[in-house]
Design brief:
70 residues; mainly alpha; 0% strand
Length: 70
């Protein structure tokens, strides 16, 4: 039960991170090969993906990825 609660909390935090990054991406549109907006969008998608994987699997390596993304 404790593991499930921790997975839900961690996935929720990653969901908040994904929302913030995707919501604010348009503010960082400086010119260049890879703009800040693109980096923010990539981070948002990665956070959302890892959050979903964490909820579904709870695998040790997904926890490592969640720690790195967080």
């Amino acid at each position: 039960m404790t593991r499930l609660v921790l997975r839900v909390i961690a996935a929720g935090c990653l969901g908040i991170s994904a929302y913030v990054h995707l919501h604010l991406a348009h503010r960082y549109g400086y010119p260049g090969t890879i703009s800040g907006a693109t980096v923010f969008r990539i981070q948002g998608v990665v956070a959302a993906t890892v959050g979903v994987l964490l909820l579904v699997t709870g695998n040790k390596w997904v926890w490592v990825a969640a720690a790195l993304v967080g």
